[in-house]
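Residues pack. One example:


***
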Amino acid sequence: FCTPCLQECLKPKKPVCGVCRSTLSPGSRALDLEKQIETTETTCNGCNKKMYLSKMRSHAAACSKYQNYIMEGVKAVTKEPLHNTRNFPNRFTFPCPYCSEKNFDQEGLVEHCKTLHSMDAKQVVCPICASMPWGDPNYRSANFMEHLQRRHRFSYDTFVDYDADEDDMMAQVLMRSLRDK
C-alpha cells in the first residue's frame, strides 16, 4: 500500500483494514513471532546472500538482483501488458470534489465533506457515483451533501456484483425475495 492509502485507513477515529475495510481492534504485539523473525535465516532470491528475515525487507529494497528476480516473475505471470490493468475504474478510493484531498474510502469521503464542506453550495460531481457503471461523470448534484448522506450510507460493493448484468441481478433479487417469505 502507498502511504496516503494507509494513512486514510489508520485515521484515529476509525482505523480499518486496508483490504476489506473492516474496523481494526486494538491488539498486542506478537513477541514470539518477532523473535522468530529475528532468528530465522533466509537467502535472497536475487543475490543468494544469507540474512535474517528481519533484514530481508531492507535488503530487497536495495538489491538490484532481487528487483530483477521480481520483474521476471511479474513478466511470467502477466498475460496482458501492465498498462491495460488501469482500464478498470477505481471504486475503492475517491477524491474530494471540493478540495485537492484524495484517497478517501466512501465513509471517509462522507465524513470529510460533512466536517469541512457542509456549507459549500457549489454543484459538484459525486466521485463515488461517477465510478459506478451506471454513473454519469458529468452530472452535478444540486445538493451534494444531501446526496452523500442519502445515497452513500453504505458501500455499494457490499451489495453489488459489478460483473453481473442488470437482468441477472433482478432475477437473483426476485428469487431471494420468494425464498425469504
User: Anything to note?
Assistant: The mean pLDDT is 81. The two ends are 44 Å apart (CA to CA). DSSP finds nine helices and four strands in the chain.
